[in-house]
Specification:
With 407 residues, the chain is an all-alpha fold. Helices cover 73% and strands 1% of the residues. Strands 1-2 form a two-stranded antiparallel sheet.
Amino acid sequence: MDQPAKNTTSGYHLSELVYYALRLGTIGFGGPVALVGYMHRDLVERKKWITESEYKEGLTLAQLMPGPLAAQLAIYLGYVHYKILGATLVGIAFVLPSFLMVLAIGWAYVTFGGISWMQSVFYGVGASVIGIITISAYKLTQKTIGKNILLWSIYSASAATTIITESESIWLFLGAGLIVWAIRTSPWRNWPNSVNAAFLPPFVTLASAENSLAELLAKIAMFFTKAGAFVFGSGLAIVPFLYSGVVKEYGWLNDQEFLDAVAVAMITPGPVVITVGFIGYLVTGRGTDFLTGFAGASAAALATFLPCYLLTIIPAPYFKKHGKRPGIVAFVDGVTAAAVGAIAGACVVLGRRTIFENGWTPEIPKILLLLVTIGLLLKFKKLPEPLIVLGAAIIGLLIFPFVHANR
């Protein structure tokens, strides 16, 4: 019981941060872009539990390490004042609500044969979520980039790269950090004597028997461990990797089931990567057996999030110890500028995919929902995002049949 109930330097109880993570995982819509924005707004600006520099360190580490962005940032922020215990409890609290939600949806999906209403709900929610993401990215840009011309240049280049390629590159983040470090410091001085890089992809070993559930669970664990350990970028970056594996390589899901899985992740709060729980349930729960479905969902989720947990807490002490050095600060600023630029670029990419369904023909109802969402968030600063998402879902259910009736 060495862990104090309250850290004297933080001003908050660990239980308060865990409750916040639980709440964010329960009502935090918008995907990784919005979630990292909520953490900055709530923990840095409003509650002041986390400093701006600590947040930047966490965001940089989350961008440099493979795995889901929002989950890694939450884990690091738990580590800041409460070390491994804080990282562990915050990480579990952040992921658990959305895992339980996709588990329930997976059971309903298998039991009742698909989710026909999902398209209608996502029609409204998708456009509204883009508005929420846009506001979050705008505030994050204002706070982290400021008026620095160098950071704006990196931010713009990163945003343009993301928009053009529709992907994120670890080399761009590293290059941005090195550029700012080289310009602000003398490269031949102040360089740490050693740089410790910890990449420890876990190897999963499970007992298996021919054509048994254990064998299937072992395959699920191995595949999703690779997904969590070697896919960089936001939670959405894992989608192409998942598609190539669960649809093309293993044939666990067909195209429509995979699209439904992604839609489930988008219309539920919490990290987008939690779609792996839904996929795991479908793979093992075909016979409407909840326990085997639960086993598959748990294996997929644990295998995906364990690498990102380890790849956050292992290098975290280095960031905490050396994060204030001028060279490290410069590197962090550069990576942060590139990361926020990539987030802004992702808003454009996601918005284009959501608003323009067929080529470049815009969906007028979606544009109106997007503009209304942005207007409401700008007008009413404390308006809860879940309330907006709920309203958008209801609108989607009402208008979707009419919008597509003439097609």
